[in-house]
């Protein structure tokens, strides 16, 4: 199965996203945005996702997408900055539950053999790999949900 992983610089932005049930990505150069728009087309309604907080170096808040990314829309009412390619999510948790990257590497098979690029590279979190899904096992998804789900 595929999972999309997105990074946030802090928990404040994640809480705002959960409250708005919306995620989006940072504006980048026109060339990079063109690539992100193309890659975002792969993410369909029902796709699985998870958020990584760089501030705490932790995974949090698994979700299911309930809309596709909107290439023509910029969001500037949820976060302090403007964000692009917004899409609606159904959160399966919130930032009150987090799994530190070092713990995730020990527990989740998808991160067992993380190379020099670390968690960011393994989960396609940043830069040109945003909107590139990672293949994980159903067992890993079940572990992520067990570790991060908030009833």
How would you describe this protein?
The chain is of the alpha+beta class and 151 residues long. It has a single domain (2-148), classed as ph1033 like domains (ph1033 like fold, Roll), CATH 3.10.590. 29% of the residues lie in helices and 28% in strands.
Task: Indicate the topology.
Layout (H helix, E strand, L loop, with lengths): L1 E7 L2 H10 L1 E5 L3 H11 L7 E6 L4 E8 L8 E2 L7 E9 L6 E3 H7 L10 H5 L11 E2 L2 H11 L3
Parallel strand pairs: 1-3
Antiparallel strand pairs: 1-8, 2-6, 3-4, 4-6, 4-7, 5-6
Sum up the structure in keywords.
28% strand; 8 strands; ph1033 like fold; 29% helix; 151 residues; alpha+beta; 8-stranded mixed beta sheet
Characterize the largest beta sheet: strand count, sense, and whether it forms a barrel.
Answer: 8 strands, mixed
Number of beta-strand segments: 8
Rg calculated over all Cα atoms:
14 Å
User: What is the CATH topology assignment?
Assistant: ph1033 like fold
- CATH top level is Alpha Beta
Count of all domains: 1
SSE string = EHEHEEEEEHHEH
Apparent shape? globular
Number of helices: 5
Query: What's the pLDDT, averaged over the residues?
Result: 92
Poorly predicted ranges: none
**Given the helix and strand composition, which structural class is it?**
alpha+beta
Helical fraction: 25-40%
| Straight-line distance between termini | 23 Å
CATH architecture assignment: Roll
User: CATH homologous superfamily - what is it?
Assistant: ph1033 like domains
Tell me the fraction of residues in β-strands, as a range.
25-35%
Short description:
The chain is of the alpha+beta class. Helices cover about 30% and strands about 30% of the residues. It has a single domain (about 1-150), classed as ph1033 like domains (ph1033 like fold), CATH 3.10.590.10.
């Amino acid at each position: 199965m595929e999972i999309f992983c997105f990074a946030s610089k802090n928990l404040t932005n994640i809480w705002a996203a959960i409250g708005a049930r919306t995620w989006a990505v940072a504006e980048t150069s026109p060339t990079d945005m063109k690539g992100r728009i193309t890659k975002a087309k792969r993410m369909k309604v029902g796709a699985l996702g998870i958020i990584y907080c760089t501030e705490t170096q932790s995974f949090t808040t698994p979700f299911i997408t309930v809309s596709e990314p909107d290439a023509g829309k910029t969001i500037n009412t949820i976060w302090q900055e403007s964000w692009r390619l917004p899409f609606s999510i159904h959160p399966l948790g919130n930032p009150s539950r987090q799994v530190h990257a070092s713990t995730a590497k020990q527990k989740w098979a998808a991160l067992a053999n993380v190379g020099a690029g670390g968690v960011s590279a393994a989960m396609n979190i940043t830069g040109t790999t945003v909107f590139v899904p990672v293949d994980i096992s159903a067992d890993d998804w079940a572990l992520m949900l067990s570790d991060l789900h908030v009833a």
